[in-house]
Amino acid sequence: MSYKDRKVINIGTVSEMTGLSVRQIRYYEERQLIFPERTKGGTRKFSFSDIEKLMDIANHIEDGLQTVEIKRMESQRKHRQLRNQMIRGQINAAFGMRK
């Protein structure tokens, strides 16, 4: 696992780093745009990748997009990535190539 994906940053620090309020960050979690981990005590933990994603979300919101549109864009992006991985796998299988 990359250091960027390790969930070790608390919500207060994320708020300071992004300029977003704690309330905004929680709202984006409620809208299922970000997925922090929870400690046994319920504390949210974020990664640097989550922070980058929050900044992207904030930029989209500034550009006038709604959270439902952002979620749809993310779903389409993930679908394209999966499709591309499948195509690469089929090409590798057909031509005996390895990563």
From TrEMBL:
Q: Example GO molecular function term?
A: DNA-binding transcription factor activity
Instruction: Quote the SUPFAM superfamilies the UniProt record gives.
Output: Putative DNA-binding domain
Q: Where is the HTH merR-type domain?
A: 8-76
Q: Is the keyword Ribonucleoprotein assigned to this protein?
A: no
Say if the entry is tagged with keyword DNA-binding: yes
What are the protein's UniProt keywords?
DNA-binding, Repressor, Transcription, Transcription regulation
Task: Please state what the protein is called.
Answer: Transcriptional regulator
